[in-house]
Fold this protein.
Amino acid sequence: MKSTLRALAAATLSATLLTGAAATSYAAATPSPKASASASAEQASLTVTVDKTEVKAGDKVHVTGRTKGLKIGSKVVLQHKKNGKWTTLKAETVVKNGSSYALDAKLNTKGAEELRVQSGEVSSPSVTVTVS
C-alpha cells in the first residue's frame, strides 16, 4: 500500500511539474503586445504657460512649456479657439533638449483668447489671454 501511495504521489508531482513547465514555456513563447500609436499619444503630454494673461491688440505673448513622451525635434504649434473650433496660428517651434519649447505669438483679436499648443495628436490644456 505504501508503494502505491508513493507511486501515486510521484506521478502527481511529475504531472504538476510538467504542467507548470509547459505553462511557463508557453508564456515565454507568447509575444507581448506592442504599444500602438494611439497608446503612445495617450502617454505623451504637453504643458503651456504664457508670460502675460492680459495684452493689448498687436502685442506678443511668450508661450513656454514642457513635454513628456515626445521626441526632441517634434513640431509644436499654437492654436486658438475660434467659433468653437481649434485653429492653428502662425506660431510654431520644435521640442528642444530637455523636453521644452518656447514660442512668441502676436495676438490681434480683441477679447478672451483661449490658447493651447499641439504636437501631432497631443494637446495641452488651454490658457486664456485677454486682448484689449
In short: The chain has two domains: 1-32, 37-131. The chain has two helices and ten strands. The mean pLDDT is 81.
